[in-house]
Amino acid sequence: MAQNKKIMELNSVEVWDGNYANAQALRQAGVDVLSAYPITPSTGTVEGYASLHANGYVDGEVVIVESEHAAMSGCIGAAAAGARVATATASQGLALMIETLYQASGMRMPIVLCLVNRALAAPLNVNGDHSDLYLTSQTGWISLDSCNPQEAYDLTLCAFKIGEHKDVRLPVISNQDGFMTSHTAQNVSPLSDEIAGKFIGDYLEVNSMLNFDKPVTHGVQTESDWHMEHKAKQNDAMMKSVTVIEEIFKEFEQLTGRKYNMIEQYKLDDADIVIVCLGTTYETAQIAVDNMREKGIKAAVLMPRVFRPTQIEKLASMLANAKAVVCMDRSAPGGQLGQLFQDISSALINTPARPLMSDIIYGLGGRDMTVVELEEICEIAQEEVNNGKLNGTIQRWVGVRGPELKYFNVEGK
Amino acid sequence: MAQHNEVVTSLYKSKDNFENSIWDMGWDEVMPGACVNSFVGDIDHTVVNVQPEDRNIAETNSMHKYVGDWRVVKPVWNVDLCIDCQNCWLYCPDTSIISRDKEMVGIDYDHCKGCGICSEVCPTNPKSLVMFNETIKNEDALTQWPEKKKKGE
Predict the structure, then answer these.
(1) What is the pTM of this model?
(2) Are B35 and A236 an interchain contact pair (Cβ–Cβ within 8 Å)?
């Protein structure tokens, strides 16, 4: 892997949407192979990168394939050969890609997937929610989440460095919200090509198929005799990636002054009410938290920056003093409590902390989550704290027309 | 393994021949991913000129994987009829026809799946490779060999 021969002069501040921020990060990473099948709202990532490629800014290959399943398969093949590879997708594309996501992580291929979060059909919907993000939760991919184009750019760059680290060697997803981030042009401060290239570093080949001195077989079959050892090793790398991610975030901060934490929080220190959410809602919730504080309600908001591996220990210590934790799940729960609720409650189950835990289903298919609605959510949580118990049920749907939807009676009724 | 001659049997080593056998490895020692070594250590590019039995084949190489029980019919080789044309060697999808110096030496029954392609492409009359039921002994099969076919048969 070498730097692209042609350098692109960037301004210290560019106006990019989340997709183009991804495309620029992929260009600066010196991706050898991008194998993709564009899908709304991630099309701009592939289109932007293909345009940079067509204009001679990229030395690598762009392979436009016939499906998302083929896109990830192409990535796996190129990665096994020994290349730095990336792709982008969303929603149905991700769903079609699922089988190969497990292949990629199981084969320990440090592929970067720019996932632009979008609802899953039916009904068909191109707008943002976290159905596809949640669908990746057990695929063995490290999953990073961003709230705006700047973060999308930064985290896509970091994704290469994290995944390719010798102690990790796992694929990484760089998430951003469909349209809210992907199509909203904002100020982005990019690194120069040289600094970005130096930050990510040269691609480290591990057992690559094009190393003819040491022939290896990739994608082998292991039955009951060896499967468990290989999966144990893979999962152990995932668990130990936490240290590497922290180191890389630290290095990135020293380089740019932009600080990323495993778990982001806003005004958590003295908070009674903690909203937990992912993506752009984190930024909206900060405004709601400020408004609540003016009304004397000690609210805070928390966002897992690293969605996978789950930060159980950190969540447990950060939420030790919360009186109510409201998990905001932006995905139809399928008869369950939402994924964030499950993650947060499993972090707290063995601790002395017993906050009131509730689950809000919101924002499906791009339905807005407004500051006013978030304030109402905080006020209800404060009421519940005052009463010392949840108001009947654990799960509540917010922002949906029709009769109130509440599920999972807290008293077991 | 009636038709395994010394060359064929020498391809297989028991796990006792390997230092650090994979059977003694824990999860922390296996290679990352779904990846295994084909050879022990680095190889010389001239390995193509070395016969398989002389290559330093790794324990994890599929050479050591027995898949003979996938087969329900097997090819039996009649050395007296064989003209060493190498058609079977060329067409076998599992490199299970063993030849040395352009002379057939046997069938690798550990890896042959019984597809019958070798018999199909065999040009002699009668064929030198004939498919028999797996349960028939090779020496019995040789006594039941088909007759030479006449023109038009």
Answers:
(1) 0.91
(2) no
